[in-house]
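Regression test attached.
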Amino acid sequence: MLDIKVLRENPDAARSGAIKKHMPDRAEAVDRALAFDAELRALIPRLDAMRSEQKAGGKVLGKLNPEERVVFLAKQKQLKAELSVLEGEEKLLKEKLAEQLGLVPNIPDPEVPDGKDDSQNTEVRRVGEVRVFDFPVRAHYDIGEAQGWIDFARAADMAGSRNYMLFGDLVLLQDAILRFAVDLLVERGFVPIDPPLLVRDAAMFGTGFFPGGEEQTYRCEKDGLNLIGTSEVPVTSLHAGEILAEKDLPKKYVARSACFRREAGTYGKDTRGLYRVHQFHKVEQVIVDINDKERSLEHHESIVQNAEDLLQACDLPYRVVNVCGGDLGVPQAMKYDIETWMPSRESFSETHSASRFYDYQARRLNLRYRPEKGKPLFCHTLNNTVAASPRILIPLLENHQNADGTVNVPERLRPFLGGREVLGKPVF
RNA sequence: GGAGAGGUGGCAGAGUGGCCGAAUGCACCGCCUUGCUAAGGCGACGUACCUUCACGGGUACCGGGGGUUCGAAUCCCCCCCUCUCCGCCA
């Protein structure tokens, strides 16, 4: 969430930020939050004074004679009754303020382009050559089904639409790319994590997915737990409520986990193939560091670079885009997407998403550190995909396919596949 | 799932109704003393909010929430977490 002080001093920045994100209802939360804040600030000094009187009164009690006691106790009871009314108001106001403040989105940075959806994201750079095929190019699902690597029909039968089953070499290729992703980040000093997949609401709220993301989240109501849509949730929440030592920062983590998304409201969109599915695996990088904008910007570039290095190592052409306001989530201040070339879609399509939040998530998570001098400050957090599968299998299969339906393995992935250079048999 | 024990400041640990935002030890920081693998003395040392130009003052917080009471770290209820034993189990 934003600092209430930012809202007091510059409410317009918060309002226009929400507008830039095409969230007009949340822009209104700014004024509702400020109204509750004003009421609360009027109330608190009164409450403090009354509590002070009550406390002082209690200490006098022992010195009084019986008659004085009776009078005094009556007075104290009166005070208590008044206090409990005001304390009720205080509690209610605090809840209402927290609710509205939780709705106010992070303010997008100035370089975030205006726009309502991903069609208005702006290209930052394009890397790699898009391959020109001298044979009819096939989609990953055609290759996969012909090779016996993918079964959509039976998966849908047992688990519903947007499900899939992988078999054989494709399972091994998936493991190869995910393991390569983990190794790459571990080499760069990231600590590998295997996090919980089911988390409490506090973690969903703290990372900014709740409120708002409930419809996209599978929930185990019986236990009050939520299946994570990304390991960003448990990993960024790791140090929630803590005050870290500055010398221990930055914290750099790389998590591999299964991820689950309901994909509500996407009916009819990306229905074919492995692009949009309910369940996938993702290697995610998360950084927690000091409250310093320059450092956040440096980290942001570096985590994008990590992902680009993976794509380059896999000989995949891609582009980096600056995500526009309307395509930005609630908690992000700025986001780069990496889109990898997918021949079947004849487009660069999103495979990575690199976000910076400044202290927005840290405030919600109460995640702080103690600087060398002075009071604890909220940390900055960032995250980015390293590899998400099966989506990343789409460009791997399609860009590296041969005319006979076999698929070449990028050199850097071969060590993870026992040195094999080609997967599959001739099927076309 | 059943039975029991416990959650207090960075850590350890005392505190069972007012004298407690909280002893003591360790750690950390500042000053001083003495010097051989470091010791001793003194001081400071939680977080948030309100208030003050400032010094300072006030309020809240002892896992979370609610209750009893003039007054709760302390008593009662619910929840969460940790540990031990039993059961079950990949």
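Expected vs. actual: identical. The radius of gyration of chain A is 27 Å.
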